Structures are given as C-alpha cells and as structure tokens.
Fold:
Amino acid sequence: MKIILIGCKGRMGQEMSHLLSQRGVEFLGIDKDDRDKVAPFDADVIVDFSSYLCLKENLSLALERQIPIVIATTNHNEENMRQIDRAKEMIPIFMASNFSILFNLMLKMLKNIKKSENFDIFIQETHHKHKKDSPSGSCKDILKILGNYENVVVDCRRAGEIVGQHKVQIINGNESLTICHDALNRQTFCEGALQACWFILTKKNGLYGMDDMLSETI
Structure:
C-alpha cells in the first residue's frame, strides 16, 4: 500500500509520518504548499491530516486519482459535508473525528444508554492549548449520542500539551456512572488511521466510519 499523507508538517502529520516509516509503508508527505510533488507518485489511498479548510482540494485530488481518502480532520461545515456527500458516490471515503479504537468503543457503550430516566449528563473534554476547535470533534460525537437529554453540561478545557481526555458522568437521584477515555499519545490516532487505510482499500464507493471498521475487527 502506498499513501499520500496530506498535512505532514502538523502534529498529527509528523506522528503519522513516523509511524508509517516504522511500519515500512511507502508514503509521500505533502503540505498545502508543495502539491506539485504528487504528480509522479502512484498512491493507493490518501490520508488527510491537514485542515477542514483544505477539504475541497483534497477531495479533488482523490477524485482525480480515483482512489479512497481517509479524512482525519474536524470542524467541517455544511458545505464541506455536501462535498463529501457528492464525492462518496464516486470514491470510497472514510471519515472520523477520533481514530482511537478505545474512544470509539466508549461511544458504543454510550449508545446503549436509553433515555428512560431523567439523567443529568456532564461531559468534560480537555486538549492541548494549541487546539483550535471547541468543543472538539470527539466531544461533538458524544453530544450526538447524549445531546437529546435535557440536562447536559459541557466543559471544554485547553491546557498544556494534553493529547485528549474525555469524561462522561451520568447522574440520577441515587447514583452516578462515570466513563473516561484518556489518549496517552498521538500514536493511538495514527494506528487507527492506518487501520482505516487498509479497511477502505477494499470497499465500494460510499462513506464509512469507525463503526463500520470496528464491526469487522472487534
């Protein structure tokens, strides 16, 4: 498998480059200013660790090459989602806001919580001080599951170099349940993104996510 890695100079891009080198995966790392390097490289899949602002150009590259793309960026607006919706008819697309296996298993656990009681929900997410979006894409995933409860409080924190912490506390009048996920390093996200590359290579045109991949592997 050969990979075009877009956003190779960012934090996640550098970590992904390191992982691919360790695993002996042939790849071409590019950034928004050096796309001219792409022409002679015969890739099987694109991994996008750049920015939601570059989505149009990155989808165009995938469509031009007729190869799958793994979108690992967050904070996409409605126009971006419309572009993805159109492109999925022509190429396979894998998209996730968080590529951690254990985080996505936590989401599966939360989906089993039924709205049968008057729960209070407290969500706390903490990331490094450089992170631009708040709440994070991962926190928004949690809100998609639990946001239908009336009493939901979200606390977003940015401090130091914390990779990513998410805590969900569910409270009723008699007891409390707390579920936590702590990313100890960025490699966990890169491992998931690499696994997504192998997954999407054999898929038909369409939009896929972590639920699809986990249903085959776990």
About this structure: The mean pLDDT is 91.
